[in-house]
Amino acid sequence: MPGGGIILFDGTCAFCERSVRFVATRDEGYFKFGASQNPEGQALLAKYGAGGDAAGTMILIEDGEISMRSTAVLKIAKRMTAPWRWAAVFLWVPGPIRDAIYRVVAANRHRIAGRANACEIPPPEIRERLITP
Fold first, then answer.
1. Residue 61 domain-assigned?
2. In the chain, N or C: fewer CB atoms in 10 Å?
3. pLDDT-based confidence at 53, cuts 50/70/90?
4. How many domains does the chain have?
């Protein structure tokens, strides 16, 4: 699909990297990916005026808009194959409630999955979808 979205993730988080792999096998090639700590990710964050706390969260840039935290996750799910896309129904839940749950998971993500190896090379199906300058 031309004009797909971009997912920025915490490149030091193994949980986030596994989430990217999970999405990449279920999004039918819609998304491109980038670590928010990389120069390309930093440039996008600056372009969209995202604050300093953005580097530690899941971010979706789609149709010229930026979404963060639970909204990003659910909008990403909406572009995935069934049954995962059905999670988008939770967009109806008020953002503060969704984000409270998101923050609990985010606060424990390093305990759940550990830290990512900065030298890890992504598999070819993801490598070809990484954002580059």
1. yes
2. C
3. low
4. 1
